[in-house]
From TrEMBL:
Protein name: TetR/AcrR family transcriptional regulator
PANTHER family hit by this protein: HTH-TYPE TRANSCRIPTIONAL REGULATOR RUTR, HTH-TYPE TRANSCRIPTIONAL REPRESSOR KSTR2
Alphabetized InterPro entries for the sequence: Homeodomain-like_sf, HTH-type_TetR-like_transc_reg, HTH_TetR, KstR2_TetR_C, Tet_transcr_reg_TetR-rel_C_sf
Residue ranges of the annotated DNA-binding region, renumbered to this chain: 36-55
Ranges of residues in domain HTH tetR-type: 13-73
UniProt entry tagged with the keyword Nuclease: no
Pfam families named in the record: TetR_C_24 (PF17932), TetR_N (PF00440)
Keyword terms, alphabetized: DNA-binding, Repressor, Transcription, Transcription regulation
Length: 203
């Protein structure tokens, strides 16, 4: 009597990742509130009921999308901060890491930009506020070190500079497309050449 083949369970994690990529694109394009499980399923080419095999709600999908993005972002940021380089080098590395994350998680960044202010009111998304506090501390402390070390201008408003750098880096998610003409590192280099000429000490 022939032995029955065991079901393929190894494909499930990969399929799950594919569905999260699809969901992220739909959330980014249509907005969280306007997106339904049915819309995600339609874009994934499956029935809405089949999507519940992998996820119990659109909230759980969004949470996993954002947590994955932020976990990777902080792995990169923590490595930069732990290197304890000079303030200019740290700023350059943070900007470069940010563009790499946009390359890896463009849709998640777009969702974070558009939806985080509304989402933090929900308990399951409270981690967004904590990440924002860590983010602000990392950037402000780097700028403050640069001013103290006379690497950046003494008259620099570090909070205003932080907001400028933050917004101009992350808005790239609205136009950046992976596989384009410029790599994340090249975009970061061009960006830094414009920003640092404005805040570096004039010699």
């Amino acid at each position: 009597m022939p032995t029955k083949k065991k079901p393929q369970v190894t494909a499930a994690p990969e399929r799950r990742r594919e569905l999260l990529v699809t969901a992220a694109e739909v959330f980014a394009e249509q907005g969280y509130n306007a997106t339904t499980v049915r819309k995600i399923a339609d874009h994934a080419g499956m029935l809405a009921g089949s999507l519940y095999y992998h996820f119990d709600s659109k909230e759980s999908m969004l949470e996993e999308i954002l947590r994955t993005f932020l976990d990777e972002l902080w792995a990169g940021y923590d490595a930069v901060l732990e290197a304890e380089s000079g303030p200019r080098e740290t700023l350059e590395a943070l900007v470069t890491e940010s563009f790499r994350e946009i390359d890896r998680h463009r849709a998640a960044v777009a969702i974070y930009q558009k939806e985080s202010r509304q989402l933090v009111a929900q308990e399951r998304f409270a981690f967004l506020a904590e990440s924002q506090r860590r983010f602000e501390k990392a950037w402000l402390s780097t700028l403050e070190r640069g001013v103290a070390a006379r690497v950046f201008r003494a008259d620099l408003d570090v909070r205003l500079t932080y907001r400028f750098v933050r917004d101009t880096v992350w808005v790239a998610a609205s136009w950046y497309r992976p596989g384009g003409q410029h790599s994340p590192e090249e975009i970061a280099r061009q960006y830094l050449s414009m920003v640092l000429d404005g805040i570096a000490v004039r010699t």
